[in-house]
Amino acid sequence: MNALVADMSSTGNVQKVAEAIYREIAYRKEIRPIEEVHDIGAYGVSFLGFPTHQQGPDKKVKEVLARH
Ligand SMILES: Cc1cc2nc3c(=O)[nH]c(=O)nc-3n(C[C@H](O)[C@H](O)[C@H](O)COP(=O)(O)O)c2cc1C
Questions:
Q1: In degrees rounded to 5, what are phi and psi of residue 9?
Q2: Engineered SS bond to 6: which of 25, 34, 52, 54, CB 3.0-4.6 Å?
């Protein structure tokens, strides 16, 4: 199985969590900015992290989620 950890982080909180999850994954894994995710279906498991801005995900995150 391969795993994806993707995040968006403005001030670093989400990034710390994403990196902690990434460190604990014991199989094949990638970590990348969420806007660079092209095909979530290519991974056995995906962890997506982003901050709440104005009661919801940032516009960039909404675009990624809408594509999948
Ligand atoms: C411009 C802005 C808007 C925010 N709006 C919300 C919000 O509507 N609701 C909420 O619970 N937190 C809100 N927050 C708090 C962030 O979601 C929270 O601090 C988050 O941990 C930031 O993650 P980051 O450090 O990875 O950027 C907002 C933060 C910023 C900077």
A1: -150, 120
A2: 34
Distance (Å, rounded) from C-alpha 5 to C-alpha 46?
Answer: 6
Segments forming the whole domain that contains residue 16: 2-67
What CA–CA distance (Å, rounded) separates 44 from 53? Answer: 28
pTM: 0.91
Question: Using one digit for the tens of pLDDT, what is the confidence trace for 3-47?
Answer: 999 999 999 999 999 999 999 999 999 999 999 999 999 999 999
Q: What's the CA gap between 31 and 5, in Å, rounded?
A: 5
* Mutational test site, ligand 1, from 11, 13, 52, 59, max ligand atoms within 8 Å of CB: 52
